[in-house]
Amino acid sequence: MSTGRKPRYFLGVDGGGTGCRARIEDEAGAVLGQGLSGPATTRLGIEEAWASVSRAFGAAIEEAGLGPAETGRIHAGIGLAGTGRKSALEALRAIAHPFAKMDFVSDGMAACLGAHSGEDGAIVIAGTGSIGLGVVDGRELRVGGYGFPISDEGSGADLGLKAVQLALRAHDGRHEKTPLLAEVMQRFRNDPMEAVAWMDRATATDYASLAPMVLRHADQGDPAGRRIVQAAAEQIDTLVRVLFEKGAPRLTLLGGLASPIEPWLAPDVRRRLKPADGDAVSGAIILARRSTAPSSSSAA
């Protein structure tokens, strides 16, 4: 029986704007422990984001029953929202940690790694926001996703924005009234100034909260709803096609809007979509495992 090095462990963390998930696996891929915590994005500040990440991996380590010595043999991959912000990565890499090694990628890139088992491929995320990401021959691809309202076309926030715009036009008599637009205006007590007051403090999440209403009316044949959703689907079609043009060999559609928007996509786009192999935590664990490879270089 071999009595060589002590076993290593692999930690993956997916930190996003709504919550944070952590998972620890052994070298064979068996799950030893999992943990959850609240939002983890650098938009909250580096300290608060790291505190959420720490709560999630702390719970996973506790469930796995690992002590300080074993924790020191953990290789960690952290997918975190907002790592593209200037100086965020440098600040995160400067944080003291108890692991053998720790590396960071964006939560989107972790999702891409997980979706394609670490192989070349791309994803389009359609949720509150939207973005196209991929990895081809070591090159990172990015299309869109620069933030609402200047980007994130085809997203839930974009659907909500278009619905409010058309509702206000219909209220003025500049657009035909439809059940969707009437329901949007009811949210504002049929008073455009209520919509203006809401706009002053509304976030992308607030706009995206209107997306289910838009989709419901579109599915029921509402002309304004259909127009909005079809336009959003065309934006997602474009993200998908551009990623294929840039060399992505396969593509997965992810995010809360993925399932409801898919029937609206162009037939050629729908045919080319592949289901995800794994999630963003899986992708973060792939990143962690790469750090132990003989010719390891920092991933994606």
Explained architecture:
- Helix 4 (107-115) crosses helix 13 (280-290) and helix 5 crosses helix 6 (179-187).
- The protein has two domains: 9-117 and 278-290, Nucleotidyltransferase, domain 5, CATH 3.30.420; 156-272, ATPase, nucleotide binding domain (Nucleotidyltransferase, domain 5, 2-Layer Sandwich).
- It is elongated.
- The protein has helices spanning 46-64, 68-71, 88-93, 107-115, 156-172, 179-187, 192-201, 204-208, 211-219, 223-245, 258-261, 267-272, 280-290; strands at residues 9-15, 20-26, 31-37, 74-80, 101-106, 121-126, 130-136, 139-143, 251-254.
- It is an alpha/beta fold and 300 residues long.
- Helices cover 44% and strands 19% of the residues.
- The protein has 13 helices and nine strands.
